[in-house]
Amino acid sequence: MNLGEMRTEAMANGFDPIMFGAVRMNRFLNDGYLYICAQVSYTGDEAVLDFPTAAGVALYPQPVDASDFRSLRETTRNVQLDPVSLRDVDRSSPASTGCPRCYALNGQNFQLWPVPDDVYQLECRYWQLPALMVLDTDVPNLPAMWHWLIWSWAVAQAFRAEDDVQRAGAWDARFQKGLSDFSANVKFRADMPTRARSMWDPEPALGRYRRPY
Questions:
Q1: Could you give the C-alpha distances from 178 to 36, 41, 42, 48, 149, in angstroms and in order?
Q2: pLDDT tens sequence across 96-148
Q3: Closest listed residue to residue 156, CA positions, set 165, 146, 147
Q4: CA 191, CA 135: separation in Å to the nearest integer?
Q5: What is the pTM of this model?
Q6: Angle (nearest 5°) at CA 113 between 109 and 119
Q7: Distance in angstroms (rounded) separating the CA atoms of residues 121 and 132
Q8: Distance between CA 148 and CA 171 in Å, rounded?
Q9: Domain parsing of the chain, residue ranges
Q10: Strands 121-128 and 46-52, how do they pair?
Q11: Which band of pLDDT confidence, cut at 50, 70 and 90, is reported for residue 197?
């Protein structure tokens, strides 16, 4: 379904076209679209950002359209950087330089450790928030069988705007059930290690951090 078809489907639930014109209903549809993509990381949302490091610079901006991150890799040696906590970085030697081996999320940035001592090419794999649908012919980046989730969200918001709490709740329940089914059906299967670091680890400093090969 495209944007125009989803808006028609939503409006078919008896909404006043004056109160719910194309602009307002399109906003509901796009809000639902972004919410779905932010909640479920799946292969159709995957994107890649390549960027170089600079000697002496530890902070690098994250992709502005990211909903979640999958990995950060140094491509020359084909080495994946280990995700660590910002606390780990803070407790490690700030004077350490070399090829980055770890990264922490620091606000809207990646903070690399050790601090790069040269130019290294990094590749960030992440799940991307889509561009808003603007034209009636725009099609969402979701499998076609799940397009109904978008207009179901819009219907719930429109009933809520009418103060029809009962119908809004019914459509919310339908949407949440569908979102759960969608997640189970298409969600990316994690390929990261699932074993947590031992709470008895005597040395949290990254200088002695061992990669779990």
A1: 10, 15, 15, 28, 7
A2: 888 999 999 998 999 999 999 999 999 999 888 888 999 999 999 889 999 99
A3: 165
A4: 37
A5: 0.69
A6: 85
A7: 31
A8: 12
A9: 3-42+130-186, 45-127
A10: antiparallel
A11: low
